[in-house]
TrEMBL record:
It holds the Pfam family PdxJ. This is Pyridoxine 5'-phosphate synthase. Homooctamer; tetramer of dimers. One of its GO terms (cellular component) is cytosol. It is an enzyme of class 2 (transferase). The gene is pdxJ. Belongs to the PNP synthase family. Pathway: Cofactor biosynthesis; pyridoxine 5'-phosphate biosynthesis; pyridoxine 5'-phosphate from D-erythrose 4-phosphate: step 5/5. GO terms for biological process: pyridoxine biosynthetic process.
């Protein structure tokens, strides 16, 4: 069974749009978990545009696994080592982007990433690198000792030709390197099924679509339907 992590960032986006206390991303997390989610993902951005430090502390206090998405900075690594979430997913971050637009440049950043990855691993945190489905990125993730990679499915979700095949090749290579495979970005009810067939896939992290769908059907129903599609 593929695990489903729900990204609650956009609940915080809506809350912050009016400077209110609602909707509460932690309440959304609890509801998602009650309806079959296996874990919660949240991205604490440098500019705190959606999730805030207090949200992360409250999400950490839940009994379910927290996948803490973060940029590779001293500030975030120090915070993660103190917080000790179940997992950290290292992502690229640019202030002006609307979402995580591409995978982490693990090849170019290899030297600077290495001490951060080691520090997180030494703190007992499962490290995941969010990468594009590129052979060199997977080889570098293996060389860095990352136990998990999350493949960026954004280009596939946008319908880019050949992208599903590229994801399949990357999935095979990830398995050959002994790395656990996760995937996410831009996934919906309509496009998720081929992704569930990636060999060795263990986890999907989905946010924007399920939170959007919740406006119409409620979060419990959107999570349950996605869980059904994953089984
Ligand atoms: N995984 C990672 C690493 C991400 O950065 C995001 C987007 O925040 C997601 C998964 C979820 O993407 P989406 O919100 O498009 O479902």
């Amino acid at each position: 069974m593929i695990r489903l992590g729900i990204n609650v960032d956009h609940v915080a986006t809506l809350r912050n749009a009016r400077g209110e206390r609602y909707p509460d991303p932690v309440r959304a997390a609890e509801l998602a978990l009650e309806n079959g989610a296996d874990g919660i993902t949240a991205h604490l951005r440098e500019d705190r545009r959606h999730i805030r430090d207090e949200d992360i502390r409250r999400l950490r206090a839940l009994s379910a696994p927290l996948n803490f998405e973060m940029a590779v900075t001293d500030e975030m690594v120090t915070m993660a080592c103190a917080l000790k979430p179940h997992a950290c997913c290292l992502v690229p971050e640019r202030r002006e982007e609307l979402t995580t637009e591409g995978g982490l440049d693990v090849v170019g950043l290899r030297e600077s990433l290495a001490p951060h990855v080691s520090r997180l691993l030494e703190a007992g945190i499962r490290v995941s690198l969010f990468i594009d489905p590129e052979p060199e990125a997977i080889r570098t993730a293996a060389a860095l000792g990352a136990p998990v990679v999350e493949l960026h499915t954004g280009a596939y979700a946008l319908g880019k030709e050949g992208e599903l095949e590229r994801l399949h090749r990357a999935a095979h290579m990830t398995a050959e390197c002994g790395i656990e495979l996760h995937a996410g970005h831009g996934l919906t009810y309509e496009n998720v099924s081929p992704i569930t067939e990636l060999p060795g896939l263990k986890e999907l992290n989905i946010g924007h679509f399920l939170i959007s769908e919740a406006v119409f059907v409620g979060l419990g129903a959107s999570v349950r339907r996605m869980k059904d599609l994953l089984s």
